[in-house]
Amino acid sequence: xxxxxxxxxxxxxxxxxxxxxxxxxxxxxxxxxxxxxxxxxxxxxxxxxxxxxxxxxxxxxxxxxxxxxxxxxxxxxxxxxxxxxxxxxxxxxxxxxxxxxxxxxxxxxxxxxxxxxxxxxxxxxxxxxxxxxxxxxxxxxxxxxxxxxxxxxxxxxxxxxxxxxxxxxxxxxxxxxxxxxxxxxxxxxxxxxxxxxxxxxxxxxxxxxxxxxxxxxxxxxxxxxxxxxxxxxxxxxxxxxxxxxxxxxxxxxxxxxxxxxxxxxxxxxxxxxxxxxxxxxxxxxxxxxxxxxxxxxxxxxxxxxxxxxxxxxxxxxxxxxxxxxxxx
Length: 328
Known about the structure:
This protein is an alpha/beta fold.
């Protein structure tokens, strides 16, 4: 010890810096005591909230930190995402992101409060989630053919709800209108959970909704599923055909869930979070639970998620242009 102490009995400045560096590296690799906020930018009970609450405790166990889910709905997800975009760059504020926030909203909003490509850092994809087209169980519409016939018989009379203007649920409806050559009136809500009661009551004719948010209502006999929006059937709704199967070839309007941190978060923190997500979503128990919800578990590298965001922005730009969709 005498060899490293200065005459004043203190550690030399160079050694102090080295120890500080070691301490910093240790905290980054083992985690910290800081609680992680997992922001869900939509209301509780919706198709994004349900899987977030499923994985949060498992994520906490692997990271050694508390993980709390916070619902911050508004502006098609922009309000909650903006909080993450402007948070400290320490990996302690995460976003349960969706395609509409990262790829669609920039196409629809004249100005964005943040730039998804710069202010959000991709962590990992979590899963792919087809939507399901539903009507009230008491509706006279029994199938997709009935819906299309009714819309053609009285253009504009049928209404379709969404979780908000610019969401994938909104654009899935617009894509159906374009693909089937029909006219329906869009009724935006602040989240799917808020819209579903009006679909159940018949106040709104129909709606595309994430399978996790609709599944219990379908099983309870309160909603009637007409078709799912992906190119393959959903195991949780194995008897419900795809829109493609029913004659509208190539119809594909799926959502995905992905985790994002604040842009500028150090790469080592992103890597740590990515590994935790991969471990959680890769576990057989979580994969099975997600599948029960209608979500196909799927993880990625941060780069792969970044590339998916860019590809989806190009895809949905065409739908926005053809439909004339805009923020109401």
